């Protein structure tokens, strides 16, 4: 009798080719599926023989568009956790760490994930900074040469989301445009992922014409229809799970060109709901056929990323699979990576030691009350200023013109309904500070400070009281990163993020619990938002409408330029 | 108004994503589709504006498994001809020229096709010789190092069909096994094509386990079912177009894992019926849904070969398309390659000058009557010998034990019902000659000689009369290759194949007409076979059952060894 590493009897596997559940025995050799014995005739010798007694086995899930840093976790605990949920391969796009530390940051992320129990592929960050050095200062810049360098590295699967979608269809001299030309010249089939909300008709065609043909952003039905029609691979994240979208995909039989992805998952959602497995479950709940949902989380993402060695239970494919306790709700019993149960892997106890400099990424001197004193262009009277308006349900900030009193040349903003927002350049490059105001559904009192501020990740301090702002700012500098909330000179929630100022080395549970503390603190201080963490974390995201803030000042996103604080 | 290179109005295009015909205007820039304007709203300036008045446009066809040499044509006339039929990309596997001239032959084929109006990609010949040097002498050998060298060349799409399918699942020390390991180590998604008739169950799994997961050979329904079930990409050639197979693909919705291919097309069939277009038409005729048939000749073959820049009419894809005069019968009006009408390309007048040595590949001295004198292991009496039995409907040759008289130590075979078959080693390597006998549905009288003898392409001379055999053999040496038929000291059909002894530089029409002469000659001499050319051309194919002949002698294919002529 032939020997195999693992012999699993009486399984009911999901065959992605027939899109059917089929009874079989199956065996594994050297991490790959060997024989899927639908006739159940052949016996093998093995030290590992398992009788599943008819339990269902599906391929491991593959998430081809996501950002590990969005979870605030470092790669190892993140990957171990999602591995236990059934995600066995990811394509991570590390543009957050690239904003902090450039190519070196990307390299460090790759090293930090190397001992991961799951396979981590990478997209080349193509939009770092998200806009331009004139609008935001970042720790790292990824230009043409850096992208070339990154493309040579191991486990690079694609060019990550091209975000400057209005720019690339206009200006052919962008670094990213040059890079796409370069890489397509070398390999016309090189995969380039996009990010193009709202783009339609000829503009969409221009984007596709450049060879950028995947999109994971949020869309209307018309936008979705046009994307499929024009050969775009559509990546569905949780917020795209709407009935009309699902019905369209089902009616038009567009599974082949569809995959589920997660994009950004907050650590507390990760802890409470799960990862890609949650998206798949929710899709099924909303009427996406179960077989097709599994297909779009295994076969199609593998095909999209040209990872032809996985995404199916078939001879020669990598033996990544999930044993389900029950098919209903896809209740996971065990996850296997390369034929080994993830929960039993020795690597799980490993820790990654980041290079020293990643623990020291906040290059700022002590902040004082002076830093929040705000000079007006007059001695006494009232001044008109631009404020960013937080609105529940959105990360977009509208502009509002507000009026504040001026005394002895200083704007008197403390304890008004307008909170001062300051962004301190924290990479030790130019020490600039941007000022603005926030109003609307955000904080009503107290303060919040954060270095987790998409995408530039400078130090943001927002508050109504200087004393608390100074406290929080200095605590962040002291602990080299994090998100802290406080009031009346006291900290009421603190999530330290010492790795590059954006990640914690703690476990999912620990970070989720700390994040909840911060979230509860924000809610306690009157924040009205479905996700106050993401709301604060995107005040600085200058590719999201309309008025945002960086260390350079206020940015009019639509115009793509800096605007004066004083009107 | 924006300028484009070509602006086509009022087309009805086939959208591969929705698998539907859709009305639109479309435009082309720099050889790629630019805007597919389903709203028909946007006008463009162009020197080329065509109003198709509702005519149908489908993507150019892609043939991912075929051998140019099978047509006996050189790459340029071949590609020009199939280009006019709508085939705009091929993946050619040049193992015939590799048998004649090794890596240099492959390089020469690539150069010879460079000016082709269509795109020619290549599979790395992986089975040259088809078996082993002990069984057949070839001009070239492709081993591990040669495959490594070929893999670095431009336009290499895959490892071509691994034919020694029984060998690779047993013996892990084969050159091809080592090469697959090497190339998969570098790129686990590297495409490796197979050739595995009859392989089933665990044997099939072993083949797939090595990473060989495409097959284009002929199969029973059960074989086909197992191939799909186990994740094999199934390539359907004309002889696989059987009702039960088509019904199965349609019922099980297996289009995604299916493409049409041609494999080997004889030049007269090419002239009379067409190429991949003929296979597609025939499939539709036999009940394959029209939309899916087009899909399986464009989108799926592109996806299989990771040629993601083509196979669809969508922005950014290479503008390869067919304008149909009528949808019915897919009647072709014009074919466009990279946005240019093939019939109007300047390159069409080009000719390729093969390197001198390819015109001198038959290294044999003059053949004399002595060469066909056949010594028996006795002086007088009767001798028992093995003969190959030709059977109409098959290229397989069964074994029969025959008896012939011996006079003065010489076997008296002339003008019996048994024809002498001789294979002269023609590469100037060892000068060996293999002897055997042929009977059954083959020639009844006269003789045929050929250097187009799969796969070793040595000089085969078969006949019932020595005088004619000497004439034909020397004529072939004189003209450096071809297939000639004659009787009573006269040539009645002659197709010269001076390039490597297997190809002609003439046009499709000319070669087809010459081939017909030879075919008619064979029929005139009593050959009973649906394809006497292929029948003669496979006497030497030692990967096809059961008894075949090479310059080394008779080969028992199942055993994979030489056997004695005398029993």
Write out key terms for the chains shown.
567 residues, alpha/beta
Architecture overview:
The structure is a homodimer. Chain A is of the alpha/beta class and about 575 residues long. Chain A is about 25% helix and about 25% strand. A 9-stranded mixed sheet of chain A has the order 19-18-17-21-20-23-22-24-25. In chain A, strands 1, 2, 3, 4, 5, 14, 15 and 16 form an 8-stranded mixed sheet that branches. A 5-stranded parallel sheet of chain A has the order 6-7-8-9-10. In chain A, helix 2 links the parallel strand 7 (about 85-90) and strand 8. In chain A, helix 3 packs parallel to helix 5. The longest helix of chain A is centred in the first third of the chain and has 19 residues, at about 95-115. At the A-B interface, strand 3 and helix 6 of A face strand 3 and helix 6 of B.
State the helicity of chain A in percent bands: 25-40%
Low-confidence spans of chain A: none
Give the oligomeric state of the chains in this entry, treating copies of one chain as homo and distinct chains as hetero: homodimer
User: Taking Cα atoms only, what radius of gyration of chain A do you get, to the nearest Å?
Assistant: 25 Å
Total number of helical segments of chain A?
15
> Largest interface, per-chain counts?
A-B, 50 and 50 residues
Roughly how many Å apart are the termini of chain A? 84 Å
- Total strand segments of chain A: 28
Sum up the overall morphology of chain A in one term.
Answer: globular
What structural category characterises the helix and strand content of chain A? Answer: alpha/beta
- Biggest β-sheet of chain A: count, sense, barrel? 9 strands, mixed
Overall mean pLDDT of chain A: 96
Strand order of the main beta sheet of chain A, please?
19-18-17-21-20-23-22-24-25
Beta content of chain A comes to: 25-35%
